[in-house]
Every structure is written in structure tokens, then in C-alpha cells.
Amino acid sequence: MSAAADGILRAVSRAELVYANVTDERHYNAEGAGGQPIVFTFAVPGRALPFAVVRQWKAPQGMVDERFELVSPTGKVAHASPPRARRMPGQMDLTEIVDRVDDALFPELGVYVASFLIDGEVQGQVEFQVVFQAAAEKLPKEVEEGFRKTDVVWIGTQRDGRDDVVPAWFAYQKGKVLVLHATDEKVGEQRIPGADDSTDLLIISRHKYRDTRLERFPATSRVIEPSSPEFDQLAAVLADRRRDRHGPPAEAVARWKQGAVILELTPNVG
């Protein structure tokens, strides 16, 4: 039985970590703190689906700095929470803290270790597993409607807490957003910020014809090179979608092969 399952955790005198768990948000909503210690991702490396980090403390009365680190199977810190000042009511009371995490990027699958720290010292650890989940071919109805009723979305990344996005034409099919990204400026096509060095991108979609509300989706990017067997088929879908294309689709696809890739984006909407 894992430490997450039976709540047996090592502790030091500064504070006692009575119980801890890292579990997919859906498991947490259905089963509470005792949900299966598992986290899902659509791609590796890639952003995980939202999950909950639960811990129950007994600590002396007063203020402490509390945080956690999620360590990959190869020993690297994949995600860490910022230190937060917490008021502990005293050793006789149990303090439960639950964080919802929706921005963790995991570099590999396998068994991870969650370390829980008080004032910079590790008080306990539990294990959880990061596993692959195939993305659904259909997104929620309102999300698909947003993509199908607009010609342009904003795509890019976040840098230092600020959006770095550009308007981009795209195609939508089977739960994926397809977008062309120029690797050679001579091709004269759009370039997506962050596409060359990150698998974690941001999509912002506006609801056309209905209101001006914006929807924001983190998305996992898979790069499809011109040499890939998939390129021609997906490029044909994009060429069909291109409103201001000059000449037959085959000419556009041939030009794109000289200096562009296709980004297949999987919106992370659970």
C-alpha cells in the first residue's frame, strides 16, 4: 500500500504531515482526498490535466512557510508551488490544505515523488503516477462551437505572466486545432510565438456572432514536419480552410513544404 493510500508519512519535529495525496481533479471531486494517486497528460512532455495536491498538517501554533515540489522519476523538480505563509492553529488541530494545479508541465511518464516542506525543510513525501490519456475526438459542445464560428484565434505562449500571442487562421477537426507555422520567413506565412521551443501553447478564442467573451485554453502542441506521412493530408485540410489562398491547394501545400510545419494543438479542457 502506498504512503498516499494509508497516510503513513515520515515527519520531523517541526511539523507532522499526517496525510498527503496528489490526484486528478476528477478523482478528487468524486472521491475526495483519498482519490487514486494519479495525474493525466495528453502528451509527453506536456501540460497535465488539472489535479489536486492535498495535505493534512499538525504543527505548532504560529505562521510557517509551506510549499510542495513534484519530482520526476529522473530526479528533476518538474513543478513547485511558491512558498505561502500559513497560520497553523496548533498540534491539537488538523489543518487540511488543497491546491488545484492546472499549469504543471511534466517531462516524462512514471512514478513521481511529491515532497512537502515547512520553512524550507522536507516534512514528508508521497508517490503518485503520471500517465498518458488519449485526447477525446470531441470537445465540449460550447468549445467546438467557438472554434467553428470563427476564422481566427489567438495562439502563442505566456512569458513572465503576460500573453505573447498572434491572430492565426486555423482548421478544426476531431478535437484538434491545426495551424500552420512558418519555419522560414521566406514562405510568407504566420509564425506562432513559442512554437519553436515549447510544447505548451495558449489558444484564445472569441465567440463570433454571439458575444465578445473570450475563452482561454492551454494546449499541447505536436509538430508535424513536411517529411511526415500526415503532412499532406493535414495541409490539404488547412489549404481548404485558407480564405485568401491564391491558386490551387496543391500549390499552397508544395510551398508550405519548403519552410513550414503544421502544429496539431490539443486543447486541455479535460
Question: Which short descriptors sum up this protein?
Answer:
270 residues; mainly beta; Coagulation Factor XIII, Chain A, domain 1; Pnp Oxidase, Chain A; seven-stranded antiparallel beta sheet; six-stranded mixed beta sheet; 46% strand
Describe the protein.
- The structure is a single chain.
- This protein is mainly beta and 270 residues long.
- It folds into two domains: 3-132, abc- transporter (atp binding component) like domain (Coagulation Factor XIII, Chain A, domain 1), CATH 2.70.50; 141-267, Pnp Oxidase, Chain A, CATH 2.30.110.10.
- It is 14% helix and 46% strand.
- The protein has a seven-stranded antiparallel beta sheet. Strands 2, 5, 6, 7, 10 and 11 form a six-stranded mixed beta sheet that branches.
- A hairpin with a 7-residue loop joins strand 16 (200-206) and strand 17.
- Helix 4 packs across helix 5 (249-256).
- It is elongated and about 75 Å long.
- Mean pLDDT is 88; it is low at 1-13.
